[in-house]
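Recap for those who missed Tuesday's class. We walked through two folding examples back to back. For each one, the amino acid string is listed first and its predicted structure tokens come directly after. Nothing is annotated here on purpose, so try labeling regions yourself before you check the end of the notes.
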Amino acid sequence: MAERVNSGALSSSRSAFAAIVASLCALATAVVAAPQPQPASERPPHAAARRATRAPAPPRRPPEQRAPQPPAVETPPAPPQELPPLDTSTPPPSLPRASRERMRQCATQWMKIRQEGRTAGTSWREFATRCLTR
């Protein structure tokens, strides 16, 4: 009984191999029978056919109708004006000495006056000098 199973498996593998060989032969026959591509000299020139469908370019303008070209080289920007030297003979102005709490109170008053629009041309330094010396 074991011989029958082996002989059956062998015959099925031979038939599968024969089917593969037959399909390869059919494929080779189809490739050989297929039409051969035309040589390049007999093919239509595709690029030339595409160019022929485009609209022609507009004619060039005569030189007198062209817009003037801007200068190729730009002029460098002018150097900045020099500022006068700082006067270091006197120390910069400073506010009077005051406690941190007093400074906070003056700042709060200044913000309130400024929001109400009652500064009347007074700067913070002038207001703070008067407020901190009180």
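Example two. Treat it independently of the first, because the proteins are unrelated.
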Amino acid sequence: MSLKENIGMVKEGLTAEEQFFEKAVVTEKFVKKYKNVMIGSVVVLVLVVAGNIIYNMNRTSTLNAVNRTLVALEANPSSKVAQDKLASLSPTLNDVWLYSQAVAHQDLKTLNSLQKSKAPLIGGLATYEAAQNSQDKAKLEAYAQTQGAIYRDLAQVQLAIILMNENKIADAHEHLSMIGIESPLAPVAKALMHYGVK
């Protein structure tokens, strides 16, 4: 090898080393500049993952406790301890449990107390059941006029039957005519208008 070739190889070696050191310096500057941001990002990521794991564990534990409490309530529906525990673990599910028991036992007091329930549908269903069990025309009519009432048509039929028993035929016809033809109760309303209310 000639001296020129040796010098060329040395220059190439130095150039490669210079590039390596240059990149190392640039990387070092970048790390120094964004060190706090990178550490903060890692800490935030670790906290988010740990928080998610803890949340899921807590949620699973609560669900298991609620399930055990419901099993205990099914075995002994009059257990005040289990009822209080369910109320503290899941107020919404407690309202559902109270509603099911109130309907089964026709407990008007409990149904009236559940009318303000925050559980989806329970307030409306309790309002209907209380009005239906008490045969209160004003409550049934108020329920039937409620926006989104599930048993609206059934309340109209019940109102019509109450009015039929009072010989208020025109009012009964009016309530039955409020039931749409697409309602499952339309045949019942039609039959009542034809046979029951003349």
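Answers for example two:
The chain has a mean pLDDT of 84.
The CA atoms of residues 49 and 65 lie 24 Å apart.
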